[in-house]
Design goal:
Elements lengths: L32 E7 L2 E7 L5 H12 L8 E5 L3 E4 L28 E4 L11 E4 L2 H4 L7 E7 L1 H8 L15 E8 L1
Antiparallel strand pairs: 1-2, 1-8, 2-7, 3-4, 4-6, 5-6, 5-7
């Protein structure tokens, strides 16, 4: 399987939504990374954990810099649990064309605002991620790669988790990820 190229750090790479394989290591684990997640309900900012979960942060940064998340939705919302997004199909079954290995946290590390990878079992990470929005999410077993935490926008997270949902925990009105912008220092 071919290895894709690292995207431009300045965000100028064209949008891409399918890749021939997992990304090469494009980040520096000694650098600080933040993600600004702009939604149609407001903006959330997350501090990412490149030293704790280097492959996972690298994957998120890689996809964000290719504008992968732009226009996707939080397709699954469960109040006091999680909001989940990053599926290119909006169904919970889509992926970027590859999967990669887990980087699991110690038990008890999930907090309100934690960013973690959604998966379909061990080592099946792709593009779907969730943000823990309440106490039930904090009780998840350590089976999901923890790669960041919100440092701003908990009010937006709370607003999103209150969006009315229907069948399959899908929001009745779309909750759109307008953009994800990565900054580093």
């Amino acid at each position: 399987m071919a290895t894709p190229e690292c995207p431009a750090v300045d965000g100028s790479s064209p949008r891409q939504t399918r890749f021939p394989g997992p990304p090469p290591m494009c980040i520096d684990t000694e650098t600080t990374y933040q993600a600004e997640i702009v939604t149609n309900h407001g903006t959330m900012t997350a501090f990412l954990y490149p030293q704790r979960a280097p492959r996972t942060v690298n994957n998120f940064v890689f996809l964000a810099r290719y504008h992968y998340f732009d226009g996707l939705t939080f397709h699954r919302i469960i109040r006091d649990f999680v909001i989940q997004g990053g599926c290119p199909e909006g169904t919970g079954r889509g992926n970027p064309g590859y999967r990669f290995e887990d980087e699991l946290p110690e038990p008890g590390k999930y907090e309100v605002g934690s960013l973690a990878m959604a998966n379909a079992g061990p080592d099946t990470n792709g593009s779907q991620f969730f943000v823990i929005s309440g106490g039930h999410g904090m009780q998840l077993p350590p089976q999901y790669s923890l790669f960041g935490k919100l440092i701003d926008g908990l009010d937006v997270l709370d607003e999103i988790q209150r969006v009315p949902t229907g069948s399959g925990d899908r929001p009745k009105d779309p909750v759109v990820i307008e953009s994800v912008t990565i900054t580093e220092s």
